[in-house]
Design goal:
- Chain B: This is Lysine 2,3-aminomutase.
- Chain B: GO terms for molecular function: cobalamin binding; metal ion binding; protein dimerization activity.
- Chain A: It comes from Herbidospora solisilvae.
- Chain A: Pfam families: Lys-AminoMut_A.
- The structure holds 2 protein chains of 2 kinds.
- Chain A is of the alpha/beta class.
- Chain A has 18 helices and 11 strands.
- Chain A has a single domain, classed as D-Lysine 5,6-aminomutase alpha subunit (TIM Barrel).
- The longest helix of chain A has 36 residues.
- The radius of gyration of chain A is 23 Å and the shape is globular.
- By secondary structure, chain B is an alpha/beta fold.
- Helices cover 29% and strands 25% of the residues of chain B.
- Chain B has 7 helices and 12 strands.
- Classes of the chains: A alpha/beta, B alpha/beta.
- Chains A and B meet through helix 15 of A and strand 2 and helix 3 of B.
């Protein structure tokens, strides 16, 4: 540990994060959502959509809600129905309840078993093809058409990408259903669907075998369908998932309560599936100043860590996010970046940290941008970051061209080759040590306030990302239901059972 | 020589006046090799570079080649024939000046409704203009005492935007569009403008009988406000102060 952080201060930060998170965790334990219930049905093997393209899981959950209420969960009414396609549901009692419960547990258990098999398959393929060394190079494809994404993703893998992220169509986060089938018409991204997941994972398996290196696949679990998308990712062996505790609230105006309930279930699924989550703290720095708001990033990381641990994620599944977004015109900007990056590295020594490239200060001067990206890559290797998203010199101009991606990979390959083990020789001096200690102490102050005022109030006050989101505002609150005493969720039963 | 015939011929400048040197980079969908370089040189020639030389070529996978080409531009530019575009049509005011002007000119708060419309979920632009935090060191419109801000957030349906504008009797509607795939920003904006025209059939122009329609986004550089049916377009890097000053210029008559 190079920064000489005071272990008592670090402990205090974690204690405060736990205290701030606790009431929200309690709220998440005692509530369910329409998307959590739909995820249960997906685990039980319900697929497909009606003639209008509305997924059956939505039709069923809406019908159960109307006829029997969701406070007991969807599982009992669904598995008590003789023919669910009749869309007539009621809450079973007595022996009928016992039979429905047994059927529900068996069906959901089969879904969880499939997730378990996928996890074992991943381990087997990592052993067979080889796990690339860190930092992993993370590249994005985003054509809108899964059949265009596939060759681009395979080409990116051949050029050195270790992780492929398929950006979702803009607006999917606000859809309260998951579209069906292979899709070819997204906006600025490709819809996350079970079939798209399956097609892309198969394509990357093919290229992993060719390259002798397991190429990971990432998608996004944020938005109104977090639990369902997490479930589909587990069923189709995705490897990483964007899953932040506050991103949807702040940047997509999704209701805070809905987000925290959905998030807990989705992370329980990720934990079981061996999926590494990526959190979204980098986004705060696109609206807030990267120096002034550095402590909000660390505070959010500690909250994400606490929520993640509570949901069963291990440290090795916590891809906490941060970014290189300090204004390059500020003196010592690179030293400040190193201080922030090293601080995060030391606070979370076992987490596969995800480091995001500059976007805010990419001006259209592609030559200066290429230099800034090289400094970002250098900061990444110097501070031992785990996952490096590759910066594009044309950031903010257009979606990356083939040549932009190729030049970006050339940049990171050079830095890795030239300075790969530089972290061995990097010993921070007083400037960096003092800056890191200061950010940590500001983090403690902030978490103190958040723990005292309540996390939901802090979010309402605009503490994170300088955007105010009241606890009862935003989309999706009507999909949150308080659990009744007899609530049954066979998925949660399995996921929360002692390992 | 008369004024009409006075010319000022310019060429690109490398390191000597008149050398006309420029650089370009591009990708061709052909395998790397000598034949690909000839294709790149032919393209450079057709672009008006003569002579041209390929200083760098690199295979990008089996099917594509990236080139960096230097060449002498054969085209001439008559700088005398280029008219400087008009500058900002309004005076830049401080928040205090904006507040004073609104109070004196309108005698009430100026009402602004903002939203990202269509599928666009990127609230960064509208938030930079409206939120107190603002952008580039300038506070957003929420900070202005005499401006009443209703920020509707992301993915607002056009019908909801019109209804909100009517409900709060908006003086101006600000719409931000970031996503440009398949020209979504253009389509969404035109649709929005058409809806306002329909909803305010008796309006004469923006600010007279209907709210002023303002659209912002990084990629509106190829269109004019009249193409879209809006009153003003703001591009990348616009600050809240510019928007506030424009609102005063367009809406507050002294």
């Amino acid at each position: 540990m190079k920064l000489g952080l005071d272990p008592a201060v670090v402990r205090r930060a974690r204690d405060l994060a736990a205290r701030a998170a606790e009431p929200v965790i309690e709220m998440a334990r005692t509530h369910t959502t329409v998307s959590v219930e739909r995820a249960v049905l997906r685990l039980a093997g319900v697929t497909g959509a009606d003639a209008d393209g509305i997924p059956w899981v939505n039709r069923i959950v809406d019908a159960v809600r109307d006829q029997a209420g969701l406070e007991h969960g969807v599982a009992l009414p669904f598995f008590a129905a003789a023919n669910w396609r009749s869309m007539r549901f009621e809450l079973p009692t007595g022996a009928e309840r016992d039979r429905a419960l047994a059927r529900a547990r068996a069906a959901v258990g089969a879904g969880v078993a499939r997730i378990d098999r996928n996890r074992a398959d991943r381990d087997r393929l990592l052993a067979r093809h080889g796990d690339p060394g860190q930092p992993w190079i993370y590249l994005i494809v985003a054509t809108g058409d899964i059949h265009e994404d596939i060759p681009q993703a395979q080409a990116a893998a051949r050029e050195g990408a270790d992780v492929i992220a398929v950006i979702r169509s803009t607006g999917q986060s606000l859809l309260d259903y998951v579209p069906e089938g292979a899709t070819r018409h997204g906006y600025a991204g490709t819809y996350a669907t079970q079939e798209n997941f399956r097609l892309m994972r198969a394509a990357l398996d093919e290229v992993s075998a060719e390259l002798g290196r397991y190429v990971r696949l990432t998608n996004y679990a944020s938005g109104l369908c977090m639990p369902e998308i997490a479930t589909l990712a587990g069923l189709e062996r995705l490897d990483m998932m964007l899953n932040d505790c506050m991103y949807g609230i702040i940047f997509r105006d999704i209701n805070p309560r809905r987000t925290f309930v959905d998030q807990r279930f989705s992370r329980q699924i990720h934990a079981r599936a061996g999926i590494v989550i990526n959190t979204g703290e980098d986004n705060y720095l696109t609206t807030a100043d990267a120096i002034d708001a550095a402590h909000t990033v660390v505070a959010s990381q500690l909250l994400n860590e606490r929520f993640g641990h509570e949901a069963g994620l291990t440290d090795r599944q916590l891809g906490l996010g941060h970014a290189f977004e300090i204004n390059p015109r500020i003196p010592d900007s690179f030293r400040l970046e190193l201080a922030h990056a090293q601080l995060v590295r030391e606070l979370f020594p076992d987490a596969p940290l995800k480091y995001m490239p500059p976007t805010k200060h990419m001006t259209g001067n592609i030559f200066a941008g290429y230099l800034l990206d090289a400094f970002f890559n250098l900061a990444g290797v110097m501070t031992g970051q785990s996952i490096i998203l590759i910066g594009m010199m044309t950031e903010g101009i257009h979606t990356p061209w083939l040549s932009d991606r190729d030049l970006a990979l050339e940049n990171v390959r050079y830095v890795r080759r030239a300075a790969g083990d530089l972290s061995e020789d990097f010993t921070p001096g007083p400037f960096i040590r003092e800056r890191a200690a200061r950010v940590l102490s500001e983090t403690v102050d902030l978490l103190h306030r958040v723990a005292d005022d309540g996390l939901l109030n802090a979010i309402a006050d605009g503490v994170f990302g300088v955007t105010k989101r009241p606890a009862d505002g935003g989309r999706g609150l009507d999909g949150v239901i308080e659990k009744a005493a007899g609530y049954v969720n066979p998925a949660t039963e399995i996921l929360e059972a002692a390992p | 020589m008369t004024v009409e015939t006075m010319k000022q011929i310019i060429r690109p400048y490398g390191d000597t006046t008149g050398d006309a040197m420029i650089q370009v980079s591009f990708t061709l969908p052909v395998p790397h090799g000598p034949r690909a370089e000839l294709a790149a040189l032919q393209l450079a020639g057709k672009m008006g570079l003569d002579p041209a030389s390929v200083v760098h070529s690199k295979a990008m996978g089996p099917d594509f080649t990236f080139f960096i080409v230097y060449g002498k531009a054969t085209h001439l530019i008559d700088y005398a024939g280029i008219v400087a575009p008009e500058g900002r049509e309004f005076e830049l005011l401080t928040p205090a000046q904006v507040n004073t002007a609104v109070k004196a000119g309108l005698g009430r708060r100026l009402v602004v409704v903002g939203a990202c419309i269509g599928t666009d979920a990127h609230t960064v632009g509208i938030d930079a203009i409206l939120n107190v935090k603002g952008f580039a060191g300038e506070k957003g419109l929420e900070y202005y005492r005499e401006i009443e801000v209703h920020n509707m957030g992301a993915q607002v349906a056009v019908g909801d935007l019109v209804a909100k504008a009517k409900a709060v009797d908006a003086d101006a509607v600000l719409v931000s569009q970031v996503v440009t795939q398949k020209s979504a920003h253009i389509h969404n904006t035109k649709q929005m403008a058409a809806a306002f025209t329909e909803a305010y059939p008796t309006s004469l122009t923006g600010g007279l009988g209907r709210p002023l329609l303002i659209v912002g986004g990084p990629r509106f550089d190829t269109v004019t406000p009249s193409d879209l049916g809006v009153d003003r377009i703001f591009g990348k890097g616009t600050t809240p102060g510019e928007v506030a000053s424009y609102l005063v210029h367009a809406l507050v008559r002294e």
